Amino acid sequence: MSQQPKRGQFAKTKDEVVLRDHAFDGIQAFDRKLPNWWLFTCYGAVAFFVAYWFVYYGTTLVKSPQQAVKERILAVQAAQLAELNQAMAGLNDAKLVHELATHPLYVAAGQATFMKNCIPCHGLDLSATQDDGNGQRIPLRGLPLTDHVWKFTHKPMGLFDLINKGSPPESTGNNGVRMEAWGQKLSPAEIAQVLSYIISKVPEDFTDTPAPAAK
Ligand code: HEC
Q1: How many A from CA of 142 to the centre of ligand 1?
Q2: How far is CA 134 from CA 130, 131, 137, 141, in A?
């Protein structure tokens, strides 16, 4: 800058440079008039804020994150229910006992699901006990599944329902421990598989389920 800048508060015209009176710690600042295009981005942002604020809070045109998540959850629940209904439509006692529980691939898939989700309470051998390392069996929280005693039902579809929905509402649980609804974590197909695995371990408990009529 060739000439000494003027002193004052603010630059008033374009290209005018002013050394502001205000000083702090011996430091002073120049002032120049802001270009209009820059100012318009600022005014534009203010106008946008007001308009967006109105649209966001005053209308239903833009979804809030909460609303979007809620809709997504409802959609997932509807899809789960549709899948369950579809699976249930093709599933019955006879099919579980005579088709799925005797199918090696199905039973193997069910075993994998059981190992991943169920052994903490029902045990590796389905006895609801676990070796404590000194040859002693210590009880786990779940019920034994190979003792031929079925607390609620031994109807295959009843067991499907039990695994899907967890302990029935009236149950006080096993020593106070209730079972969660596995339908929240497993698909209907996975529940059918894991149940097939359980049935395949004690087929003698299910001999009262007649084989499907020959087609
Ligand atoms: C957190 C521990 C826990 C886990 C994990 C668990 N269960 Fe259970 N399960 C229980 C309890 C407790 C009961 C008894 C519920 C009651 O009395 O209300 C039970 C009961 C059952 C019964 C009925 C048993 C009977 O004798 O009538 C079946 C079948 C069963 N569970 C299957 C499963 C399957 C399949 C899985 C894995 C997908 C699983 N459970 C995972 C705790 C568990």
Answers
A1: 5
A2: 11, 7, 9, 20
How far is Cα 18 from Cα 3, in angstroms, rounded to an integer?
A: 11
Average pLDDT estimate for 90-94? 92
User: 129 CA distance to ligand 1 centroid (A)?
Assistant: 13
Residue 100 burial by Cβ neighbours in a 10 Å radius (0-12, 13-18, 19+): buried
What residue ranges define each of the domains in the chain, with the CATH number in brackets? 6-58 (no CATH), 65-206 (1.10.760.10)
CB of 194 closer than 6 angstroms to any ligand 1 atom: yes
Task: For 37-71, write each residue's pLDDT tens digit.
Answer: 999 999 999 999 999 999 988 988 888 889 899 99
Per-residue pLDDT reduced to its tens digit, 65-84: 898 999 999 999 899 888 88
Mean pLDDT, rounded, for 140-150: 96
How many angstroms from the chain centroid is the CA of residue 203? 34
pLDDT at residue 1, as a whole number: 46
- SS3 breakdown of the chain: % helix, strand, coil, rounded to 5? 50, 10, 40
Distance CA 75, CA 100 (A): 30
Q: What is the dihedral of CA 142, 94, 89, 146, to 10 degrees?
A: 10
Average pLDDT of span 127-142: 93
Q: What is the pTM of this model?
A: 0.73
Give CA angle at 143 (142, 144), nearest 5°.
120
